[in-house]
Amino acid sequence: MTFEQLQERHEALTQTVELVAADIRQLAAENRQMAAENRERDKRLGQIMESIARLVHVAEIHEHRITGLESGE
After folding, report:
1. Rounded distance between C-alpha atoms, residue 6 and residue 20, angstroms
2. Measured between alpha carbons, how far is 64 from 20 in angstroms, rounded to an integer?
3. How far apart are CA 51 and CA 41, in angstroms?
4. Cα(67)–Cα(69) distance, integer angstroms
5. What confidence score (pLDDT) does residue 68 get?
6. What is the spatial distance between Cα 70 and Cα 10, in angstroms, rounded to a whole number?
7. Is the CB of residue 9 less than 8 Å from the CB of residue 1?
8. E-strand spans in 21-67?
9. Residue 2 backbone dihedrals phi, psi, to 5 degrees
10. Quick check: helix, strand or coil at residue 72?
């Protein structure tokens, strides 16, 4: 290879590295955004699970009360 060919190859590799670095920065930003969204989703899911647990408790109380009324207690 001539010196000029080496220079061209070096420039092409430099551009490739710059593009890859830009892609990595973009992916890192997207990853941070998705992590924040996942934390918010996890928080909301926890709230939903707590609400369901409370509803189950209320249903069990009502079931016990109805069973008691049906059996004459």
Report:
1. 21
2. 64
3. 15
4. 5
5. 86
6. 87
7. yes
8. none
9. -85, 170
10. coil
- CA–CA gap between residue 46 and residue 21 (Å, rounded): 37
And the tokens for 12?
A: 């092409």
Side chain identity at residue 62, one-letter code: H
Residue with token string 């069990």: 60
Helix (H) or strand (E) holding 4: helix 3-70
Question: What gap in Å lies between CA 72 and CA 5, rounded to an integer?
Answer: 98
Name the DSSP letter for residue 71.
T
Return the sign of the alpha-carbon dihedral for residues 13, 15, 20, 21.
positive
Structure confidence at residue 64 (pLDDT): 92
What are the 10-residue block averages of pLDDT along the chain, 73 residues in total?
A: 95 98 98 98 98 98 91 76
